[in-house]
Write a structure and sequence with these properties.
Layout (H helix, E strand, L loop, with lengths): L7 E6 L5 H7 L2 H10 L1 E5 L11 E7 L2 E3 H12 L1 E7 L1 H5 L12 H9 L9 E5 L9 E3 L6 H11 L12 H7 L44 H10 L4 H23 L4
Parallel strand pairs: 1-2, 1-3, 3-5, 5-7
Antiparallel strand pairs: 4-6
Helix pairs in contact: 8-9
The structure holds iron/sulfur cluster (SF4) (2 copies).
Length: about 260
């Protein structure tokens, strides 16, 4: 690509483990092409001469957990033509947005931090980034899958909209000819979870925990009822549903079942 046609790109991380940025950094075989195909204006995990210039594409990982992050997120949105959420925390809020427990956020927060005084940050309930700004595209995963990320990135820098699978993990699991864990009464979230990981957990006899986030049109009530039939308690099911799916699954749970 000619130098003057290259997009200006920034990568940012909010609350999370940095696993999505690390997935990119650890893709050594693709890193040179990635770096040379665009102008990387900001990538604090990988370079020190970052700037706050206008961007064609901002890639954002992590959820928003304090007022200062919310302001920074809005500032990035203002100077970016496209905003892409990468990873479960940015897309759905991650484990820090699971709203576990029946009490409100203030009480849950106090239970962990007591009356601690936060001098530099003003904590708020952790939420995915689209609660604060418009998001143009979502690349899910915990962390993202490198192949899926670079496929999407190659499309985005050429102003094409990538397509990512809209079927559940179960489809990939069946293609791999695994025995179904759910039918054995094991709490697997494959039917509710977007695919893209090649069903890696059930292929190793481990249930899917939902880390890719909810698949479009996930039939939450059907899986909920099936798990209850298998003898799992409502509390066990709710806890597992919320683990990685944050507000992505809490909304349909509230709507369909009214069980929070
Ligand atoms: S093991 Fe899990 S992911 Fe695989 S088919 Fe059964 S429910 Fe779906
Ligand atoms: S099988 Fe489920 S928990 Fe495992 S990586 Fe895939 S989406 Fe995540």
């Amino acid at each position: 690509m000619l130098e003057n046609q290259k997009k200006d790109v920034g990568l940012y991380g909010f609350t999370g483990c940095n696993g999505d940025q690390l997935t990119i950094i650890h893709s050594e075989d693709k890193l040179l092409d990635f770096w040379q195909s665009v102008h990387i204006k900001s990538f604090s995990l990988a370079k020190s001469d970052n700037d706050d210039s206008d961007l064609d594409i901002a890639l954002v990982e992590g959820s928003i957990s304090n007022q200062e992050q919310a302001e920074h997120m809005k500032e990035i949105r203002k100077r970016s033509k496209k905003l892409i959420a990468i990873g479960n925390c940015a897309c759905y809020g991650g484990v820090q947005a699971m709203e576990l427990g029946s009490k409100g956020w203030d009480q849950r927060f106090r239970k962990v931090y007591g009356d601690a005084f936060f001098e530099l940050r003003t904590p708020i309930e952790s939420k995915p980034i689209d609660v604060f700004v418009d998001v143009d595209f979502y690349i899910p995963g915990c962390p993202i899958n490198a192949d899926q990320f670079f496929y999407c990135f190659a499309h985005l820098i050429q102003d094409h909209v990538p397509t990512i699978p809209d079927h559940p993990v179960c489809a990939e699991c069946r293609w791999r000819e695994n025995d179904c864990l759910l039918l054995k009464g094991i709490l697997c979230l494959g039917p509710l979870t977007a695919s893209g990981c090649n069903a890696v957990c059930p292929s190793h006899n481990l249930p899917c925990l939902g880390c890719w986030g909810p698949v479009e049109e996930a039939n939450v009530s059907s899986e909920f009822n099936l798990l209850k039939e298998k003898g799992l308690t409502q509390e066990e099911i709710k806890r597992r549903f919320r683990m990685h799916n944050g507000s992505g699954i809490i909304k349909p749970l509230k709507k369909i079942l009214g069980v929070l």
